[in-house]
């Protein structure tokens, strides 16, 4: 079976490196196009990344000899799909250019997320949102991941929203340094410290989950009608965003009902046995001091959402703690899972 040619835009960044790692020996996709800024263009990936690779495994050999270009659709040579880990200062415009050139773009950037006919796709949560791609006028299509902080939160809410309805949610995040890209937050600002502000993050946390849990109507996504209040904080953790969540439901469930909903939650990635799908989408830890980034980050190869500390809330109904890997489940892994889903559904190449 011939593999589908794909590209990675922003291949040198924190998210880009994860794509390079996760795409090694992928059964459906082969990487033939890598793009980044002028600083990196014209050199091989191996040369540029010698001093910049930050993942604790070697740079995959397949990528080392690929020459990095600027992100231009004319340089793609038969690429059907690009994964974008571009900085948001240029992602919006560049991604539109690729879609106009007939390429499917799966983006990690914020730029197109709230466009009404662009899904914020989370493969277990809202695969039906793929329907709105038809309403995009370009020959290629754009879909996005959610913001990395709310990826695990939305997965934890999905089975509860479906069964009990949601009225309001309160979030308090503790976000890893790698979420700010590379080189990210200066050491002097974050070592031994907490920074109670991340530019633009609370706006995304207060709007994206409703869109993810929304419904498709006349080729557009209509956000679910519940409210969210978010506090977002940067903490001195390398990888892994931890979020404390409190929720008020339309119909208050029992503890057993919530645990049951999480335990039995699975979606199309599990049914279709997609290569990157975690066997268990949600893992609930019974220990009173879990989840913790150091202990639980790699659950399900970084693709599972780990939850713990479910207890009653005196202001809302219930509260819990969610952990997810920001560059895997919150970015490159989620985007690749979306591409696997599209491939299996015949929306990319041919799955015959
Ligand atoms: P990053 O480490 O700063 O990487 C940014 C990438 O964009 C680099 O490859 C960089 O290339 C490229 N780039 C910057 N300016 C460019 C230009 N003018 N032309 C072409 N390429 C350019 O950022 P990141 O953390 O990987 O994040 C990438 C995107 O994903 C952002 O939109 C971010 O908000 C989003 N995101 C990040 C995370 C996370 O956990 N880090 C999670 C979810 C979503 P050079 O190396 O050549 O400069």
From TrEMBL:
InterPro entries: ASADH-related, Asp-semialdehyde_DH_CS, Asp_semi-ald_DH_pep-lack, NAD(P)-bd_dom_sf, Semialdehyde_DH_NAD-bd, Semialdhyde_DH_dimer_dom. The keyword Transmembrane helix does not apply. GO terms for biological process: diaminopimelate biosynthetic process; lysine biosynthetic process via diaminopimelate; methionine biosynthetic process; threonine biosynthetic process. Pfam families: Semialdhyde_dh, Semialdhyde_dhC. GO terms for molecular function: aspartate-semialdehyde dehydrogenase activity; NAD binding; NADP binding; protein dimerization activity. Its EC number is 1.2.1.11. Residues 5-133 form the Semialdehyde dehydrogenase NAD-binding domain. Pathway: Amino-acid biosynthesis; L-methionine biosynthesis via de novo pathway; L-homoserine from L-aspartate: step 2/3; Amino-acid biosynthesis; L-threonine biosynthesis; L-threonine from L-aspartate: step 2/5. Coiled coil: none annotated. The active site is at 148 (acyl-thioester intermediate), 241 (proton acceptor). Keywords: Amino-acid biosynthesis, Diaminopimelate biosynthesis, Lysine biosynthesis, Methionine biosynthesis, NADP, Oxidoreductase, Threonine biosynthesis. It is an enzyme of class 1 (oxidoreductase). It comes from the Bacteria. Catalyzes the NADPH-dependent formation of L-aspartate-semialdehyde (L-ASA) by the reductive dephosphorylation of L-aspartyl-4-phosphate. Belongs to the aspartate-semialdehyde dehydrogenase family. PANTHER family: ASPARTATE-SEMIALDEHYDE DEHYDROGENASE. NCBIfam families: asd_EA, PRK08664.1. This is aspartate-semialdehyde dehydrogenase. It comes from Leptospira idonii. The gene is asd.
């Amino acid at each position: 079976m011939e593999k589908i040619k794909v590209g990675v835009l922003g291949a040198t960044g924190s998210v880009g490196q994860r794509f390079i790692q996760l795409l090694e020996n992928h059964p459906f996709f082969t990487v033939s196009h890598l793009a980044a800024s002028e600083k990196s263009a014209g050199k091989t990936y191996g040369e540029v990344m010698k001093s910049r690779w930050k993942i604790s495994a070697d740079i995959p050999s397949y990528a080392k000899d690929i020459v990095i270009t600027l992100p231009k659709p004319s340089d793609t040579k038969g690429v059907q799909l690009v994964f974008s880990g571009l900085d948001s200062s240029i992602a919006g415009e560049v991604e539109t250019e690729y879609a106009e050139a007939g390429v499917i773009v799966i983006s990690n950037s914020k730029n197109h997320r709230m466009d009404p006919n662009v899904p914020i796709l989370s493969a277990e949560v809202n695969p039906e949102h793929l329907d709105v791609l038809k309403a995009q006028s370009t020959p290629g299509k754009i879909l996005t991941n959610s913001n990395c902080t709310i990826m695990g939160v939305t997965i934890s809410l999905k089975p509860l929203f479906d069964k009990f309805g949601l009225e309001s949610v309160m979030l308090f995040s503790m976000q890893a340094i790698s979420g700010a890209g590379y080189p990210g937050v200066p050491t002097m600002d974050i070592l031994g410290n907490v920074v109670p502000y991340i530019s633009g993050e609370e706006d995304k946390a207060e709007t994206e989950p409703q869109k993810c849990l929304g419904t498709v109507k006349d080729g557009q996504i209509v956000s679910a009608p519940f409210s969210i209040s978010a506090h977002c904080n940067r903490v001195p953790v390398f990888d892994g965003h931890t979020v404390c969540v409190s929720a008020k439901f339309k119909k208050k469930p029992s503890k057993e009902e919530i645990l049951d909903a999480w335990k039995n939650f699975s979606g199309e990635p599990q049914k279709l046995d997609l290569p990157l799908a975690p066997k268990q989408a949600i893992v609930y830890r019974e220990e009173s001091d879990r989840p913790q980034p150091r202990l639980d980050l790699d659950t399900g190869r970084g693709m599972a959402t780990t939850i713990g500390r479910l207890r009653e809330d005196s202001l809302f109904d219930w509260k819990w703690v969610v952990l997810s890997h920001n560059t895997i489940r919150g970015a490159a892994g989620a985007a690749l899972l979306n591409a696997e889903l599209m491939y299996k559904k015949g929306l990319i190449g041919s799955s015959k």
